[in-house]
Amino acid sequence: MGKSRERQLVLVIGAVVFVDTMFYAAITPLLPTLAHQLHLSKFSAGVMTGAYPAGTLVGSLPGGVLAVRAGPRRTVFVGLILLAVSTLAFGVLQSAAALDLARFVEGVGGACSWAGGLAWIVSEAPAGRRGELMGAALGAAVGGALFGPVVGTVANAIGRAAAFSGVVVIAVVLIDQARRLPQHHVPSAQPVSVLRGALRAPRVLIGMWLVTLPAIVSGVMSVLGPLRLHRLGAAAIVIGATYVVGSGLEASLAPFVGRVSDRRGRTAPILVGLAVTIPVLLVFTVPSAVFPLALIIVLGDGAMAGYFAPAMAMLSDAADARRLEQGWAAALMNLAWAAGQIVGSSGGGGIAKASGDGAAMTLTAGLCVLTLVGLTAARAPGRPALRWSRRRPRRPGS
Question: Structural domains in the chain?
Fold first, then answer.
C-alpha cells in the first residue's frame, strides 16, 4: 500500500473514531447538569457514563464477526449509522433510563466503528509501523475526546437537541469518504473457536489486560473528576476546559509513543505511563481548590498516552503470532476496553459512593502498582515472556 493511500486510510478512520469519541466524551461537562436535573446519585451517574462501554462490550464480538465476514468497510458503515441514530436520540430524550439506552446503542456502534477501523488499518498497513499508525488513529480518537467536552459545554448552553443534531450529516459524509477507500479484505471463515483458543495464550491475555487497565483508570477519572471539580466550585466551562487540555496532551503524545513502541518494544512506554499514573491517582483527593485538581486530571490524561497505542499494537502482534484474523483482534481490544470502562465508571462510582473518592482511587492505583511490578519482573534477565521485539510478526495465513 502506497504512503499516500496509507495516509488517506488513517485520515478517514481517524475521522471516524474522532467523531465516535467526541460524542462519547460530550457527557463529561453534561454530567453534573444531568445529575442535578435527573437526581442521579454517583452510582447512577456512573451507570450513565458506563452505558456506552456496556454497549461496546455487547457489540464487540458481533463487530468482530462483521469485520471478519463482511469486511472492515461495511462494519464501519454500520457503526456510523448506529452512532447517528443513538446520538440524535440522546439529544432529545429526557429520562435517565432512555438516555442510558441511547448511550448503550452508541457503544454498540462504537464497537463496530473501532473493529472495522482497526482491522482495516492493520490489514492494509506494514506490520513494522503498526504502533505508529494505531497511535495516529488513537491520537485522532483522543482528539475527539478533546472536542467532546466542547460539544457538551455547548449542549449545556443551547440544549442537547441543538448541539447533537448535526451528527447525521457528519455520519453521511464519513460513509461517503470511507466508500472511496481501497480495501483488499478477503472474507474469512475463521471460526469463533480459534478466538477461544487464542484466549488461552498468555500474550493475548496480557495484551488484553494492558488495554483494560488504562480503561479502568479513564473510567474512574471520567466519573469522579467532573463531579469533584463541580463540588469544588468549577463551572461547566472550566470542567470542559480541563478535559480539553488533558485530551490535547494525550492526543499529541499518542503517535510519538506508538513510534517508540515500534522501535524500542511495546512494554517500555507502558512502564512509563504506569509510573506517572500511580502518584496521580494517589493524590487525586488532596487538592481543595479547582486548579490543582484540574492539573492532576490533565497529568493523568497525559499518562494514558503511554498505554493505549502500545497495548493495542501488542495485542495485534499477539493475534498475528496465533494466526488470528485482525477482525477478531479488534474485537478483543473492544472487549478489553469496554470491560475496563465499565469497571472504572460504574464500579468506581459505586465504591466512591460507599467509601469515598479516595478508596476508589487507591484501589485503582493498586492495580497499576501490581501491573508495574509484574511487567518489570517479566522483563528481567532470564524471563523472556514479555520481550515483544521489533521483528515483524507473521501475517495470518502466512
Answer: 3-386 (1.20.1250.20)
